[in-house]
Design a protein that fits this description.
heterodimer, A: mainly beta, about 0% helix, B: four-stranded antiparallel sheet
């Protein structure tokens, strides 16, 4: 049972444009969400997080938006750079639990 | 470098053999997690320690799997009588948290297990 879903396995974007990666979840108990970036042969690297009391969090070129009613979050990267090419995972947890649930990832390619 | 380290990075073994992986978390982190990742999937939670106490185990963790964190520092994950289905990337993560569910986990590079 996949509680966190990333329905786009891959995304290609031109350098300088916006990349939008999407994530949906099914468990209404989730209230903390994270995005990780993963390069080949490396572990996931933490990128940005958001708690359910917010609907937006920004960190430099990265912004995460949370729509609780739709159980949807998205990661915006502006402007996209070739070094952003990686697999991006979203993850979710509930404050009452200790498990993180990950999506299946979206492979982003930024074309120079 | 004070990140999470894992050893070995790669392990090839024959079916039926036992293997052990080690994880050294970031030094001030009190929580340590083990995940398994197979091709095309995201990391799947296996187990979690707060200090030396193993507080949660996934149903994915069969009785062939055992994890320890004896002194609340490094951790080991052992797989007994390995099966080909155990072939995966085993990831360790650590965090320093005050409240449950809001920690940020920092991952190691993983150990790639191949069972022949």
């Amino acid at each position: 049972d996949q509680q966190v879903k990333q329905n786009s396995p891959s995304l290609s974007v031109q350098e300088g444009r916006i990349s939008i990666l999407n994530c949906d979840y099914t468990n209404s108990m989730f209230d903390y969400f994270l995005w990780y970036k993963k390069y080949p042969a490396e572990g996931p690297t933490f990128l940005i997080s958001i708690s359910s009391i917010k609907d937006k969090n920004e960190d430099g070129r990265f912004t995460v938006f949370l729509n609780k009613s739709a159980k949807h979050l998205s990661l915006h990267i502006v402007p996209s750079q070739p070094g952003d090419s990686a697999v991006y995972f979203c993850a979710a947890s509930a404050v009452t639990g200790n498990q993180f649930y990950f999506g299946t990832g979206t492979s982003l390619t930024v074309i120079p | 470098d004070t990140g999470v380290s894992q050893n070995p990075r790669h392990k090839i073994t024959k079916r039926g053999q036992n293997v052990t992986f080690r994880c050294d978390p970031i030094s001030e982190h009190n929580r340590l997690y083990w995940y398994r990742q197979t091709l095309g999937q995201g990391p799947e939670f296996l187990t979690y320690f707060q200090n030396e106490a193993q507080l949660e185990k996934s149903r994915l963790l069969s009785d062939r799997f055992s994890a320890e964190r004896p002194k609340g520092s490094f951790s080991t994950l052992e797989i007994q009588r390995t099966e080909q289905g155990d072939s995966a990337m085993y990831l360790c993560a650590s965090s320093r948290t005050i409240s449950a569910g809001t920690d940020t986990q920092y991952f190691g590079p993983g150990t790639r297990l191949t069972v022949l």
